[in-house]
Amino acid sequence: MPLAVERNASLKALNSFGVEARAAFFARVHSAAALGELLGAAPYAGLPRLVLGGGSNVLLTRDFDGLAVKIEVPGLRAAGETDEAWLYEVGAGENWHSVVERLLALDRPGLENLALIPGYTGAAPIQNIGAYGLELAERLHSVSAWDVDSPRVVEMPLADCGFGYRDSVFKRELAGKRIVLAVTLALPKRWEPIAGYADVANKLKARGVTQPQARDIFDAVVAIRRRKLPDPAAIGNAGSFFKNPIVTREQHRELIAHHPSLVSYPLPGGRYKLAAGWLIDAAGLKGATRGRAGVYERQALVLVNRGGATGAEVLALAREVQDKVREKFGVMLEPEPVIV
Ligand code: EPU
Asked: What percent of the chain has pLDDT over 90?
């Protein structure tokens, strides 16, 4: 198939914030071969690159003077097994939630806590998506990625992905060097429910479920997310805009002394993770509106496009949130999405 590269393309429909930005060049690719051909083609080879999947983890604040590529590699197929897990290879261009649903329908549970996370499968390893007591890293066998320098497809086992809380090598040392084409998921043969997260436990209790099956957890997570988080198709957003910050034992002791209702979680090693949503809420910013950007009413960790906002407006609001939280609590919030 010849390469179809669009010039001066609008990215508005391609980012979940729904902000306008234009790319000097834009192409969709459906295979490793097409990606190789595109990145090797004379006019595009040396340009700055912006890789998009579902566009659910990016804030575009300006036009992009380079090549934007949307990875649309399809496919979901059984890829063998290990002693502990069933393996499934999923193309980077598959919608994440639909993968969770389809595997559940195949009686392959294990991803239900990650239901309704917006975006494509290819983005899942970049920030090691996580919710309700589970992170992708716990269900990932390997990643198939395009290595820009070699250039060829490389298989990266879990151990090479450098996963942490909303973090991976794809965000750090390999940023711009590896482009995710597919992930191989590992779904546990001996499935057990992960139902300890307070919201999930409460929802199951309210529904009278005492021995949850994967479907019960899936339904509970979907209900919780629908209530708390805005649907990007209706209200532009990128999920949590900030990571939950991690502080030392001493900082935590000091904060709790001044703010007894602070929500925090102890981590192994003595540090604490703070609920950034609580910090923003307590700084009085929940529901705030600045221009056409806002802090979501039902979850202060989510910044939203109230209609027609620019990326710069959202970014200005994010800076204000960071400033107010730092002034009040002495804690710096780090954005979760990639800011372009
Ligand atoms: N809270 C407030 N006010 C708010 C929001 C939250 O007081 O406006 C308090 C809540 O009452 C709760 C605590 O903060 O006690 C934590 O809130 P929640 O359970 O909603 O989770 P979160 O820490 O805000 C994280 C993830 C979400 C994920 C949920 C559930 C991050 C940055 N965010 O949010 O992930 O769905 O836990 O596991 O880790 C995402 O990354 O895009 C995302 C939505």
From this structure: 98
Cα 101 to ligand 1 centroid, rounded to whole Å: 23
CB 216 within 8 A of CB 207: yes
Q: How far is CA 124 from CA 1, 99, 116, 119, 129, in A?
A: 28, 12, 12, 8, 5
Strand ranges (DSSP E) for 101-232?
A: 130-131, 134-135, 140-147, 152-157, 178-188
Strand, coil or helix: 86: strand
Tens digits of per-residue pLDDT, 188-218? 999 999 999 999 999 999 999 999 999 999 9
pTM attached to this predicted model: 0.95
272 has a pLDDT exceeding 70: yes
Separation of alpha carbons 309 and 294, rounded Å = 9
Cα of 37 from ligand 1 centre, angstroms = 41
CA 290 – CA 322 distance, rounded (Å) = 14
Residue 336 bears catalytic tag? yes
Residue of 59, 273, 301 to mutate, ligand 1, most atoms within 8 A of C-beta:
301
Per-residue pLDDT of 82-109, as tens digits, reads 999 999 999 999 999 999 999 999 999 9
The domains of the chain, with CATH numbers, are: 6-71 (3.30.43.10), 76-188 (3.30.465.10), 236-339 (3.90.78.10)
Polymer length in residues for the chain:
340
Residues 111 and 155 sit within 8 Å (Cβ to Cβ): no
**Tokens, residue 300:** 């202060």
Amino acid type, 5: V
The answer to whether 240 is a known catalytic residue is yes
Active site residue 98: no
